[in-house]
Amino acid sequence: MCSILYCTKVDQKSSPRSNWAVWEYTRKSCARVVPRPLGDDATEKIASLLRSMVPDLRVIVPCRAKSNGTMLALVGCEIVMGTCSELGPADPFITINPTNVMPAQFLINAPNVDPILVQIATHAIKQTAALAKALLSSGMLKGRDPNSIDAVVQALSSRQTYPSHGSVIDADEAARLGLTVTKLSPDDELWQRLWLLRCMYDHDLAKMGGLKIFEGPTVSNALKAAVAKS
To answer: Full-prediction pTM beyond 0.85?
Structure first.
């Protein structure tokens, strides 16, 4: 069993918490796993690579795999979570300008919006929903009733079920949605090891001033924050 681990700060400026997931797979290969932030095209490409390399992927989420991290979690045949693990809605965002990013759903429903932006937002939502449906119907929900799969996709890719992009989908909620989830208790030995590993990475990132850590069976690489010039 091999793993690739990606660890990064949720908010590189202010948040002390890390957002990472471990992808376990049964044969050696090389991939760069990036839960967030990603564009939909990048997410789709990484999902395709992971699925093509390993059909029986298991995703472990010790803390957070939000937004497109949730989309990549759908690549697996199973999601392993603990009491503090969370997924989140994967509704897409549209960049208006470098300092203004808006939820696609808001642009569609808001008055007096540029029709081109509305069209871009509409296609982004369709792309996200199509990717989620393709992953679920060929993966952890394979063989399920198409209507039940559509309900999961609708919940994850719109604001109808979860009104905020930051809404918490914990292990119990993910299971209620119909996802294949294994929930580990805080006293589970495997969970304690995963949580210790997460805390160690969190400590090392803070100590070294790092932003991201990539770990594979043969490669370990860290990315530090750029030092501002005086």
So the answer is: no
